[in-house]
Each structure stands twice: as structure tokens, then as C-alpha cells.
Amino acid sequence: MAVLNTNICAATSFLVWTWLDVIFFEKPSVIGAVQGMITGLVCITPAAGWAAIVMGVMSGSVPWFTMMIMDKRWKLLSAVDDTLGVVHTHAVAGFLGGVLTGLFAEPELCALFLPVTNSRGGVYGGSGGMQILKQIVGALFIIICLVLRCIVPLRMPEEQLLIGDDAVHGEEAYALWGDGEKYDVTRHELCSDDTSHAQKYPSSGATQVV
């Protein structure tokens, strides 16, 4: 059931996102279709229950609205350093999935996993409203990242971003050339638009410092 509903939600979210692109921008988008699939998968992760189609509709529309409409009108969102739209496809869709899980959580399935009695989604009445509140409180734990940012930087320095996080950690994401190259302070911190450094530091394999 979890596998089936995961695919149903992703497919529904894909269709809704594409429909919205066609309705408002008069043409579909491959990138938009992929974003729709991602938001569907993110949204259904905590649930994968019977409400997959409903969650797919929500995950294909709410993140679409925040990315395509709000992101251009709300300065707070447009100021976020988020080239790939992760705020919308993961933060918004993940929060949405958590809240909807509190809404649609099936009592018998909850009893299989939770020691707490009478756990149920909001649509089942009773204590269901409390489950939605629990899901919202859980999602607000993202505030921990805001606290950590005051202690440890969460974003890599610019000089390290120039060579990529894989090289900084001594990893190779795509073994095309320069295999095994690691971040070297003596070479990489001097990288700039000034090409004079290229002569000072010779190339490493097929990878040359620019």
C-alpha cells in the first residue's frame, strides 16, 4: 500500500503542477513537471496512506503557488539563497506532508506503530485535532537550524563553493577528470577572476586552477 500510494501521490502532484503551468503560463514545463514529482514524493513520505490523491493535489498546488507566485512577490522568499527551489520542493512540501499526515492518519495503522492510544487523524474526529497540532510542533523543530546557524555556519565559504563541496570533503561525485582532488588552501583560496594565479599554480591532472 505504501509503494502504491507513493507513486499515486507523485503522479497526481506531477499532473497538478503541469496543469497549473498550462493554465497560468499557457505551456507545460519539464522542470515544472520534475518539481511536481519531487513535491509529491516529499509530501507523501510521512504518510503513504489512503489519502495519496488528496495529498498529491495539495503537494502539486501549494508548493507551485509558493514557488511561481509568492517567491516573486514576497521579498523574504526572493531573498533566500536557493537556486534549485529546495525551500518550495522540500520545506513547503515537507511541512505540508507532515500536517496532512496529522489530518489523514488512520487509527488502526497508528496503533501498529505508536504506543500512544487513540492516535488518529483529524478527519476521524475525537483526538484527531491534537495529532495535527503534534505534527505542526514537530515541523517547527526547523528552528533548531536557526539556532545552529548562530554557532556553526551552515553555508560553505565562497572560496570552497568555487571548487564544489565534493572536493572539499575529498569525494568525487562524477569521476570524469581530476579524480581524488581535495581542497587545498594554498591553491584554491587564491582563485579569482584574475587569471594571473593560473601560472603560479600548475594544473592538477586535467583540472587546472583558474
From TrEMBL:
Subcellular location: Membrane
Protein keywords: Ammonia transport, Membrane, Transmembrane, Transmembrane helix, Transport
Membrane topology: Multi-pass membrane protein
Classification via InterPro entries: Ammonium/urea_transptr (IPR029020), Ammonium_transpt (IPR001905), NH4_transpt_AmtB-like_dom (IPR024041)
MF (Gene Ontology): ammonium channel activity
Record-annotated Ammonium transporter AmtB-like domain positions: 2-174
GO cellular component terms given for this protein: plasma membrane
Transmembrane segments: 7-25, 37-65, 86-105, 132-152
Record SUPFAM superfamilies: Ammonium transporter
GO biological process: ammonium transmembrane transport
Keyword Transmembrane helix annotated: yes
Similarity comment text for this entry: Belongs to the ammonia transporter channel (TC 1.A.11.2) family.
Protein name listed in UniProt: Ammonium transporter AmtB-like domain-containing protein
Originating organism: Prunus persica (Peach)
